[in-house]
Design a protein that fits this description.
There is one protein chain. It is built from three helices and no strands. It is mainly alpha-helical. The longest helix is centred in the C-terminal third of the chain and has 13 residues. The chain is elongated and about 45 Å long.
């Protein structure tokens, strides 16, 4: 689900129905839903998927394949 930008939205606005993903993880081979290894990484570090830089996605991809 994609929603139009609302200029009155606050920084802490959270929607339960959707999440934004960058295209990069899927361009290197990830598929959704992510593997348990990748989900546990984000759960443990409390980082949002869209906050991760491309180099970390590459490292996660390699570790996921080795796992």
């Amino acid at each position: 689900m994609i929603r139009a930008f609302d200029p009155h939205s606050k920084a802490n606005l959270v929607f339960d129905l959707w999440m934004c993903f960058l295209f990069y993880p899927f361009s290197i081979g990830f598929t959704f839903p992510f593997s348990p290894f990748v989900n546990e990484f984000f759960k443990a570090t409390k980082i949002c998927y869209s906050q991760v830089m491309p180099m970390l996605w590459r490292i996660l991809y390699v570790l996921d394949k080795l796992n």
